[in-house]
Specification:
Layout (H helix, E strand, L loop, with lengths): L1 H9 L18 H22 L1 H4 L1 H10 L5 E6 L6 H5 L6 E6 L17 H12 L4 E7 L3 H8 L11 H5 L3 H10 L5 H20 L3 H8 L4 E8 L4 E6 L4 E4 L20 H8 L7
Parallel strand pairs: 1-2, 1-3, 3-4
Antiparallel strand pairs: 4-5, 5-6
Helix pairs in contact: 9-10, 9-12, 10-12
Amino acid sequence: MANVRALRACGRLNVTQATSPRLSWSSSSVIADGTMALDRLLEGFAKFRVGYYRDHPELFKRLATEGQSPKILIIGCADARVDPGILTQTRPGDIFTVRNIAAMVPPAQIPPDQAQHGTSAAIEFAVRGLEVEHVVILGHALCGGIAALVDGESSAYAHYDYVSTWTAVARTVRDVAVHDLAGRPREQIVRAVEQAAVVNSVANLMTFPWLAERVSAGKLVLHAWWFNLTEGQLYAFNADNATFEPVKGIAVNPTVQQGTRLSAIKPERLLLALADKKPAF
């Protein structure tokens, strides 16, 4: 905190010679706004250290000496409005969390190659290393990544280096939604793709052999969730009727468990249901 205030007091900290010509502190309004945001982070940490951290010494002692042993992996969106820890009110050590654009899971690379697979690596560590018992895909309403996928070349992010390539994980789902829901308002199509992409990611989880083995053995359960932040409601995918249903209380049915047929978790079933059509499978 003192360091940030000292930087503000001196008005400017130039680091162009040490690092990059693009990096510099100044007293401009833009930098001041950013510094205020950083202040809030540091103030929050100060409160955490003298509050929550001090109030739970045994918890942090156990985490430091015994390591982590979460039972749940949550794969959520990087969107700043949808924090899995806040939504679920969990404690440190309760959930292993992966966040990326649009909460997507790519299909497994078989055989493994030498490319960088960040999300897949985190899933592998959680499933094979930590042996979590549940994996939750947590999508949400008003997802910018899904909106960019739906808008395609007309999206404001179409020229970005990596976003379009990443969201292409659900491109097939997008194409089916645009076709089956032709004539519907854009908002309905985007919402349909948001939910179908969650189911698509659950289906992609089953392409990882070591994960599918644990599901088949009854040691792992998969969940497809979608959070509507405009109403504060959580929805879970019901594979029996191919719809997302509101979660009430603490009862929720899994999307994939031991004995679940893979045909039950096809995102096309959800889209057909939304289009009031019967699936042919």
